[in-house]
Amino acid sequence: MFYKPEDGHGLPHNPFKAIVTPRPIGWISTRDGNGLDNLAPYSFFNAIADTPPQVMFSSLSSKADRDFGKDSVSNIRDTGVFCVNIVEFALRDAMNASSAHLPAGEDEFAHAGLEKAECETINCPRVAAAPAALECRMTQMIELKGDSNILVLGEVTGVYMRDNCLIDGIFDITTYKPLSRLGYRDYAAISEVFSLNRPGQS
After folding, report:
1. Model-level pTM?
2. What is the tens place of the pLDDT at every residue in 61-87?
3. Which residue of 16, 51, 59, 197 sits 20 to 30 Å from the alpha carbon of 100, by its own alpha carbon?
4. Which CATH fold would you assign to the domain 5-189?
5. Pairwise CA distance, residues 38 & 15, whole Å
């Protein structure tokens, strides 16, 4: 099968997100200028550089009660900071609950029953139970082609790792099973890893 997106795929559901998998989930926490906190998951998320460490996520829709994008993007535009919380399998239901369409200013941490912790380098909350969190300062916000498609780039200014995830000096993802987004309504939890040496490496 081959199709051009502009012509449509003719399938019951769009296969694009099922093809580009697995995708890490950026569980983005923000605080607005009035001190109100927000938390939402984004599956178009990834690390994009390591010196200095930088990440990206994109928001694909808008809200009627915001004049620009969704709550996360609006807050980041106003404050310039955000935190990426890593989602573990054990937090899957809380992550899903935080994706609810709530009115601007309503706290998804409370809605999902999550405890907050304060970030160290930015004025922003993080998910206290998360296995890791990346504190970020926004470097660019780019409006992409399409309606309300907004790309957010950030530099990591602080890194939190839960102590029980560090095994012999290695951040071991099998200790918490990171959750990844697939297509449709599907997710996967990573529990097994293997290593490969690049050609020429011993």
Report:
1. 0.94
2. 765 666 666 799 999 999 999 999 999
3. 16
4. Pnp Oxidase; Chain A (2.30.110)
5. 30
